[in-house]
Structure formats: structure tokens, C-alpha cells
């Protein structure tokens, strides 16, 4: 039987945000919690990382130059293998009510609002994975 730390290490997370300091802060918080974390700073880079690593969770900034979070999520859903649905969480400074219609259409598993504390991020991720098992 695996312990909680082993289970977290097995979980791969891709953090995507064009705000590099914020992206790196989130990645550090998640790595310190025991997750395997990769980062991307654009939608295009996010899709490259997604294809390479097949993460269990993508934390995805909604408003980015170039491909926005909606477009990236739509492509992730197209690329998801039949046996594995990647969790996708939008990270945004927009109000939650703005995203309700978007969530329904692209299959987002949750939203997080900026600014976010590292401890709140880690707690949200743990809850997401716990609800999936």
C-alpha cells in the first residue's frame, strides 16, 4: 500500500500562466507538497508540455496572450486519451459568475481566483485528487 506522499508524487501537474513569478510560485508550492510539477508560460507551450507529459491536472490561466485558457482546454479535451480525462482548473482574476458558462462548454473541473495563497492552492489540488479516487 502506498502512503500519501507516494500518491502525490505519482500525480503530475502542469501549471500554465503567462505571469512567470506567479506560475513559479504555484509550481514551487505544489512541488513542496510532493507533486511532480511542470510549468508553461503560454497556451502553445502548455499544449507541448501536455503532449509530452500527459499530466493528471492542468492549472490553466484563463486570460493569456495568444491561445487563451478556453482554447487550450478545448484542445486538451480533444487530445485526452479515452481512458484518462485530465483534470483542468481555470485560474483567473475574473469573477466566478463569468466562468460558469465557459465551464459547462469545455469541461473545466474547477476554478481558482487570483490572487491565491500557496496553501489554498495545495488544499484545492488535494481535494480535487481526493474526489477523483
Describe the overall structure.
51% of the residues lie in helices and 19% in strands. It has helices at 4-10, 20-32, 43-53, 69-79, 96-106, 118-132; strands at residues 12-16, 36-40, 57-61, 87-92, 110-113. The model has no long low-confidence stretch (mean pLDDT 86). Helix 2 (20-32) packs across helix 6 (118-132) and helix 3 (43-53) packs parallel to helix 4. The chain is α/β, with parallel strands linked by helices. It has a single domain (4-132), classed as Rossmann fold (3-Layer(aba) Sandwich).
The gist of it:
51% of the residues lie in helices and 19% in strands. It is built from six helices and five strands. Strands 2-1-3-4-5 form a five-stranded parallel sheet, with helices on both faces.
* CATH superfamily placement: Response regulator
**H/I helix tally:** 6
Instruction: State the end-to-end distance.
Output: 15 Å
Structural class: alpha/beta
Number of DSSP strands? Answer: 5
How would the global form be characterised?
globular
Q: Order of SSEs, N→C?
A: HEHEHEHEHEH
Mean pLDDT: 86
CATH topology title: Rossmann fold
In spatial order, strands of the major sheet run 2-1-3-4-5
Radius of gyration: 14 Å
Q: Main β-sheet, in a few words?
A: 5 strands, parallel
- Percentage of residues assigned to helices: 40-55%
Tell me the strand percentage band: 15-25%
Low-confidence stretches: none
- The CATH architecture designation is 3-Layer(aba) Sandwich
**Integer tally of domains:** 1
**CATH top level assignment:** Alpha Beta
Amino acid at each position: 500500500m502506498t502512503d500519501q506522499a507516494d500518491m502525490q508524487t505519482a500525480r503530475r501537474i502542469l501549471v500554465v500562466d503567462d505571469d512567470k513569478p506567479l506560475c513559479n510560485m504555484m509550481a514551487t508550492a505544489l512541488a513542496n507538497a510532493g507533486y511532480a510539477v511542470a510549468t508553461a508560460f503560454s497556451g502553445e507551450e502548455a499544449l507541448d508540455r501536455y503532449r509530452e507529459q500527459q499530466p493528471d491536472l492542468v492549472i490553466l490561466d484563463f486570460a493569456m496572450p495568444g491561445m487563451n485558457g478556453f482554447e487550450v482546454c478545448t484542445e486538451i479535451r480533444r487530445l485526452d486519451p479515452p481512458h484518462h480525462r485530465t483534470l483542468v482548473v481555470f485560474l483567473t482574476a475574473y469573477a466566478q459568475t463569468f466562468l460558469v458558462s465557459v465551464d459547462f462548454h469545455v469541461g473545466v473541473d474547477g476554478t481558482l481566483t487570483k490572487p491565491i495563497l500557496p496553501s489554498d492552492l495545495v488544499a484545492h489540488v488535494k481535494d480535487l485528487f481526493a474526489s477523483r479516487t
